[in-house]
């Protein structure tokens, strides 16, 4: 799905960056919309979320792959806004160079579903958040770090993402079972 926007138009590059950012960080839709240029620190590989849920500030790491995508996007963004609104502070501007709306973002996902012939599937900003969280855990990330990344006040909110199917449980069991993973056993 990340390859759905293969083109080199500003909108395709922007939308690829948006989807990648959701998948790479698990940020909320409103957090993405409110994201300003000053919130991205390419040097420290951190994104500052100023207006998270409950108006709490937090910092979310940027992966190496996401950093490359962001750098490419920000170059195109600057060119795109040159004759529209070069002073736009938002990372992801609308077509007119203003702050993107939630309905514009939802429309992007509807269009994506249609183009990929996935009308029966649920694809939304929150779906990407859930996908990030579940993959973070399946790849060996701990739930306590995930709690901080997602901006959850309590661990119970993060536990929602622990719902694994039987095959995922079996894979995790095989990978992390202490008895099966000790050299002294053999």
From TrEMBL:
GO BP terms, alphabetized: DNA integration; DNA recombination
Database matches in InterPro entries: DNA_brk_join_enz, Integrase-like_cat_sf, Integrase_catalytic, Tyrosine_recombinase_XerCD
Pfam families: Phage_integrase
Tyr recombinase domain boundaries: 1-174
Keyword set, alphabetical order: DNA recombination
One term of GO molecular function: DNA binding
Origin: domain of life: Bacteria
PANTHER family according to UniProt: PHAGE INTEGRASE-RELATED, PROPHAGE INTEGRASE INTD-RELATED
Protein name as catalogued: Phage integrase family protein
Organism field: Sporolituus thermophilus DSM 23256
